[in-house]
Protein 1
Amino acid sequence: MGRVIIAKRASGTRRRQLPVIIAKANLAKLFDEGKGGPVDLRRAAKLVIDAARSGNNEMRDALRGDMQKWSKGTRTELKRELGRVGAYKGSIDDAWDDTARVAVGKYLGQAR
């Protein structure tokens, strides 16, 4: 079974939004692992970023960490998505490196 992700309430987040923020992160993990349907790495990556941007602190911490709990394919798609939005200009591969973490910080900083 995949790990259920619990989000800490971000400042300024309305109580009714919190379930959606948590659901996005959990759905991303299901798409990453192919549980309950086919693997969809692109969708998983978009949901991870959207959950982090929406205030899911656990997703923000994961993106700033090593991302080893996520598949290589999802890490690759995360870089591709960050590149698409103009935050990442490095190589598109599964190595979650400092360049990717800086891109995440840049992108999440724009969300405020």
Note: The mean pLDDT is 86.
Protein 2
Amino acid sequence: MPTPTKGPRLGGGPAHERMLLNNMARSLFINKSITTTETKAKRLRPVAERLVTFAKRGDLHSRRRVMQSITDKNVVHELFREHRTPSSRTPGRVYPHNQAWFPQG
């Protein structure tokens, strides 16, 4: 996971934020797109890209590292199967998100 932010977190504490981001990454890999706020999407992007990087490596250790954050075996299997082709080795694969707009103030 990237360097934790200082100040207020998305959830209650750092552990809750990690769990929140891991569950959002799981939903992102299942649905290929999610609707979330801009702040959550900015925090989710490095986490999801790190998991995709592990999936591109494709070895057993990388699979176990991903299983530490995403505990659903079917999602991890699908993620590794999707990214194991040689064409997926190119960088820059980003999953889209739909922004939820809320009135400010």
Note: The beta strands are 34-36, 97-99.
Protein 3
Amino acid sequence: MRVIGKGGLGRPASRGAQYAGHCSATFASAQRSRRARGKPRSLSGLEPHTGLAIQGARGLDSGCWKSSHVRPNGWEAMPHDDAEAAARRLTALLAGLNLVAFPSLVRPAVPYDSPPTADLVSWARCFYASVLLSHVRQLLGTFLAAVRAGQTPGAFVLARCIFELGAHAVLVHETVGKRRAAGDLPGAWENLARAMVGNSEMRARGERTSAGTEWIKPFHVNDGLRALDRFLAKAGDEKPAQEMYDTLTEHAHPSQGAFSQYYRWENSPNGARVVFVPLHED
């Protein structure tokens, strides 16, 4: 595998290393546009599947930290049918995540230009799992704060980000697992490098790493969605990940889904009018 210079996997950080933490959980669906009267729907449609990322991380962590706290007892037993239950589930999950302490990870003494060893791949798996869960708990805490404050538009944007990270986690778990099962350590290392330090922006600009090499290509979000589809199909969920992602995207991009959260149509003596929320009557 070609070495990724400073900012790459296992080398001292450079500005490109800021992109290394893109990973973690998923939500399986989201609320759609406002009802006819302009009031936001409850979050009962936001079915949390954050556990997908946890499962992926626990499969990658190689025992480098205690993951038993991540899913508190009784988490699965909480009902899924309303917004309050979903909020309780996510709050319990966040409490478990906050109990996890990530130790420092000393990189095995393998030369950067040498083939990866099993120990080096295990170290990279711990690295990925640690940033995966660090990022999900940060975003999940922000998401819950937005929901509690009634900041639905911001919650949509955060949910879309979390969804992408969850799809990413499932994809990495799948690809790295296949490489390791085949005894392909260079392939497993390369997939982890793509997951951790892949950088489309730097590649598009033609910028090079400090070692003079091209930045490695990251996984595409569509690859993650396809991996998530395969995961959900095994779990008996027939709703495609792309459909869920499209709903979140519609409410995150400048389009009807996002804009419709701020107004409603109603009749008035002078004809149809648009009323903006919060209401400011004429």
Note: Residues 15-276 form one domain.
